[in-house]
Amino acid sequence: MNKDLREDRRAWIRSALSEYEQPLTRYAARITGDAEAARDVVQEVFLRLCREDAAQLNGKLAPWLFSVCRNRALDVRRKDARMQVGIAEPNATQHTTHADPATLAERKEGTSQVLSLVDTLPPNQQEVIRLRFQNGLRYKEIAEVAGLTVTNVGYLIHTAVKTIRTSLADDGRGASR
Questions:
Q1: Given CA atoms 60, 121, 23, 105 in this order, what sign does their dihedral have?
Q2: For 111-157, how does the pLDDT look when each residue is reduced to its tens digit (9 = 90+)?
Q3: Which pTM value belongs to this model?
Q4: Does residue 135 lie within any of the structural domains?
Q5: Under a CB-based contact definition with an 8 Å cutoff, are residues 153 and 143 in contact?
C-alpha cells in the first residue's frame, strides 16, 4: 500500500472515530448497561474497522458501525448477564447553549422526562428511537442495524412517539402537534 493510500485510510478512520465514537458509546452503554464495557465495545468496533475495506463500506459506514457495535454489545451483555438500570449517558448535555438558567432548567426537565418515558417503552421501540433521534440514523440504516424491515422500523417509531406524546399530554405537558 503506497504512502498516499495509507494516509487516506488513516484520515478515513480518524474521521469515522471523530464522528461516531460518542454516539456508538452511548448506544453500547444502553445495551450493556455499563459505561466501561461500552467503551471497550466501541474500541473493538474501531479495531475491526481498521481491517475493513473503505470502498466496501462506501455509503454504509453508519449502519455497519452500529451493526457491529450492537452485535458486540449484545455479546458482552450475554456474557456478563447483568443490566444496570439508569446508566448515565456520557455527554448528554454537552451541547447546551448560553440561555438563561430558567430556560435551561425547563429544557433539561423536558429532556429528562422524555428520556424517562423512552426507558418505559419496549426494548425494540427504545432501540429504534435512540438510533433515530440520538444517533441520527435513517429508517433504512436502522433496519440494517436492527435486522428489521423499513416498514417495521417506521411502525415502531410511530408507536413509540405516539406513546410518549400521550404520556406527556396525560402529565399536562401538552405535547400535541
A1: positive
A2: 777 888 888 999 999 999 889 888 888 899 899 999 999 999 999 99
A3: 0.64
A4: yes
A5: yes
**pLDDT tens figures, 33-50:** 889 999 999 999 999 999
Quote the CA–CA distance of 125 and 110 in Å, as a whole number.
20
Range of the domain at 124: 101-170
Angle between helices 3-32 and 61-80 (to 10 degrees): 40
Query: In this model, does residue 14 exceed pLDDT 90?
Result: yes
In this prediction, residue 101 carries a pLDDT of 67
Domain check: are 73 and 113 in the same one? no
Does residue 113 share a domain with residue 72?
Answer: no
Q: How many domains does the chain have?
A: 2
Q: Which of 80, 109, 128 is the last residue of a domain?
A: 80
